[in-house]
Amino acid sequence: MTQNAPQKDMSFTSKDQPLLEVRNLQKYFPIRGGILSRVVANVKAVDDVSFSLKRGEVVGLVGESGSGKTTVGRSILRLIEPTGGEVKFEGVDITKLSKSQMREYRKKMQIIFQDPFASLNPRMTVADIIGEALQIHHIGTPQERTERVGTLLKRVGLLPEHMRRYPHEFSGGQRQRIGIARALAVNPSFIVADEPVSALDVSIQAQVVNLIQDLQQEMNLTVLFIAHDLAVVEYICDRVIVMYLGRVMEIATSRELYQNPKHPYTEALLSAAPIPDPTVKRERIILEGDIPSPINPPSGCVFRTRCRYAIAECATKVPDLREVTPGHFKACIRDDIL
Ligand SMILES: Nc1ncnc2c1ncn2[C@@H]1O[C@H](COP(=O)(O)OP(=O)(O)OP(=O)(O)O)[C@@H](O)[C@H]1O
Ligand code: SF4
Ligand SMILES: [Mg+2]
How far apart are CA 190 and CA 188, in angstroms? Predict the structure, then answer.
């Protein structure tokens, strides 16, 4: 082992060790200005986010637009570099790895992008798009790679002969299937699915969600499923992380979160979601105003400017994410409200 080789954290056995541990993750985007192009402010897209995922778990990441979900997903994969914090994958903090050390982990961690129109190179054939990662990681001979692409296409509901075509020859749903095949080509153990169906026609969303769910079970994938649509998350996820303005507000199992939300922001989000059972009535909470700017977020609890339970104390300190019942965490100082 060379001196710089990544150190495995041996304090866990591989069975009970989380596959992914995110600790105090931070991503600030600098805003530059003036003739010297100095940093004049920062967009605090993700601030002090911590959570962990067990092997084979599907965890939802929800929150309004701009809450930092995509930034979390991309920072974990180092598609963008985090400003601070740790991302431990199989016990190794991958934020400290060099480009070449990172290569091994790139294979294990993949992403399905939101927009299947923008995320597939229009000048590449489907075979090249899906086979690219195999080639980069020197997996198989050219013939073996072609066979693998054919198998993957069949598995995602397309035909092997589609590999000679270009992205524009496919519908949105089919393109997303190609995106899924591309993510799975190198046999990853972890997938970030960034709103994988929100750009698709409502009529085909369920098929694509079902495909992801089947593949997750077949391959025992660990999935971070980013979504707006709470119904999809409830259906597919074991646990849910709720984010607002770059911070985690609540973490609980899907069932617990839906039946017994403990954070005012989750309560408001759920009140806006349609309920399939018409006999169940839920008060609709209108969140007043827009999400504040992440350049200058409110002091203390970032949700306080829109929270109907806010009190003076909420402005003084960022609430800790604390465990209120086993496995149920919330970042809110009040225990007398929900
Ligand atoms: N490259 C960037 N430079 C500056 N600001 C950025 C950059 N990328 C994201 N942001 C800002 O960071 C914040 C979080 O963005 P992010 O895309 O992570 O949110 P999101 O929760 O994924 O939203 P959506 O639901 O719309 O996809 C937003 O305020 C966004 O404008
Ligand atoms: S800490 Fe205060 S402002 Fe924040 S969610 Fe709780 S009650 Fe609302
Ligand atoms: Mg996003």
Answer: 6
Classify domain 55-81+94-237 by CATH architecture. Answer: 3-Layer(aba) Sandwich (3.40)
- Over its C-alpha atoms, the chain yields an Rg (Å, rounded) of 21
Cα dihedral 322, 291, 65, 282 sign = positive
Indicate if the pLDDT at residue 281 is higher than 70. no
In contact, 108 and 91? CB cutoff 8 Å:
no
Q: What gap in Å lies between CA 97 and CA 15, rounded to an integer?
A: 24
* pTM across the whole model: 0.93
Amino acid (one-letter) located at 256: E
Backbone angles phi, psi at 24, to 5 degrees: 50, 40
Mean per-residue pLDDT, 172-178: 96
* Residue whose CA is at the smallest distance from ligand 1 atom 7: 29
- Nearest CA among 112, 108, 34, 107 for reference residue 73: 112
Task: Sketch the domain layout of the chain as residue ranges.
Answer: 55-81+94-237, 254-338
Q: Is the pLDDT of residue 320 over 50?
A: yes
Pocket test for ligand 1, best of 47, 67, 75, 113 (most atoms within 8 A of CB): 67
Reported as half-sphere exposure (CB side, CA atoms, 13 A), residue 103 has a value of 10
